[in-house]
Amino acid sequence: MVLEVNDINFEEVVVNSDKPVIVDFWAEWCGPCRMISPIIEEIAEQYTGKALVVKCDVDNSPNVAARYSIRNIPTVLFFKEGKIADKQVGAVPKNNFLTKLNALI
Questions:
Q1: To bridge 58 with a disulfide, which of 21, 38, 51, 65 should be the other Cys (CB 3.0-4.6 Å)?
Q2: Residue 54 in contact with residue 5, Cβ under 8 Å?
Q3: Would you say 6 and 61 are in contact if contact means Cβ atoms under 8 Å apart?
Q4: Which domain holds residue 27?
């Protein structure tokens, strides 16, 4: 299951996680964001217990978006031990996300 994170709970959920975390920065009006949404959902199901998969709406969480310099969406950040370990900007095939995630597990 994909969790929603925001300016209030981002630190607690993402930065303090003991598992690798994928953060999908998106917005409701973003077409490419809607394209990768089912992929993000599939990854969340596939990696239950191994990784945490979350979404962050940039319109509702401007502080987090600014903190990580999110200028284009979709942007997917890969966190390990509270730090950014990798990044993917734009809509790409599922394998691109899996390759980056598997490197962190």
A1: 65
A2: yes
A3: yes
A4: 3-102
Number of domains in the chain: 1
From first to last of the 105 residues of the chain, give the pLDDT tens digit.
899 999 999 999 999 999 999 999 999 999 999 999 999 999 999 999 999 999 999 999 999 999 999 999 999 999 999 999 999 999 999 999 999 999 999
CB 89 within 8 A of CB 75: yes
Which residue in 76, 92, 84, 23 sits closest to 51, CA to CA?
A: 23
Active site residues per annotation: 30, 33
Residues 6+ apart with CB under 8 A from 98: 43
6: left (phi over 0), alpha (psi -120 to 50) or beta: beta
